[in-house]
Give the backbone structure.
Amino acid sequence: MGRWDFAIVGAGIAGLSLAWHLNKVGKRVLILEKSAQAQGASVRNFGMVWVVGQPTPELQEIAFRSRELWELAADECNFWIRKCGSLTLAYEDVEQQVLQEFLESTGHSNDRVLLPKEAILSQFPFVRGESLKGGLLSPTEAAVDPREAVHALATCLMKAGVDFHFDTTVTNIETGQLISSNGEVFHADKIIVCPGPDLYSVLPKECDQAGLIQTRLQMLRLRPVDESVKPLGIHICAGLTLGHYANFRDCPSLQHVQDLHRTKWVRQIELGIHVLVAEHSDGTISVGDSHHYGRSLTPYRDDQTDEAILEAMDEFLPRENYQVVQRWEGTYNTHPKLPYWWKSIGESVWALNLFGTGMTLSFGLTERLAQEIM
């Protein structure tokens, strides 16, 4: 069946972005995907390139580079992208204090600014004004529609000469070769295993040894009820997000925010909910999400969890302006300390898992990894 320079297991954003880099430098690349097309975490997310949420200078740098490469890929592969920025809103004085501390700790870098209530309502009139204290405006974020972008990227790579074998489940990985469930053997000089949440099915022992944790979430897609509902044009979140992203962890007032949220958002804290809102090219918005952790997670979507997500969204974006058109659940792996997992697991064999930041870090990180393994 021939031999490839690189074989990649998984056609999600990790595998596709890695193949994109390798193809650019003339490597012969094969991608093996168990489904007819990518169906996992890469198409079940917000489509946010969330630069502001990265907690270290190195990850910020990777995220910035990733955004640049997303723009190049969108132009090359003809999918929608928007440099939209983000707005983190505060409805409590102590939340506003955390945003101030965050801005001071980052040296007012990247043109991020703290806006008062009046400026926010003037510039973003769709935001709820009741109890609004202010917010952090960041210009560094971008948006893609993951359902469109991932499949457009795969099609583009096919045209560029990357070989794909869909509906192909890899059951055995050895140095220099992979074997599928129907007995096909694929030969490659180097192998990268990156099937997203399915990594546990492919490399269970390695995942356990690494301390990876499986995460289940719920999300919704909403449509404006009529044309009077104005487009957002920006990513939006509010107070609950302060306790979720590690970029705020060193703010002195964060503990006070978390104490407040444990009484204000009881159900949301129990369900691991923080709310992000991302708008797509057709005017719909993706809203989520919840977080449940463990190895034997229930497959059943819970309406009460969806209701708790919408309740939290309603603090800053009126839910009566939108109707739910889709609901879904997703899964991904994570780790209590690592932002991603990259490891050599054999001679010329590596494993990669991007956890919940795949859209943000993918292109920038896999550019570095491609250079490393070449």
Observations:
- The first strand starts at residue 3 and ends at 9.
- The two ends are 23 Å apart (CA to CA).
- Residues 86-139+213-334 form a domain with the D-Amino Acid Oxidase; Chain A, domain 2 fold (CATH 3.30.9.10).
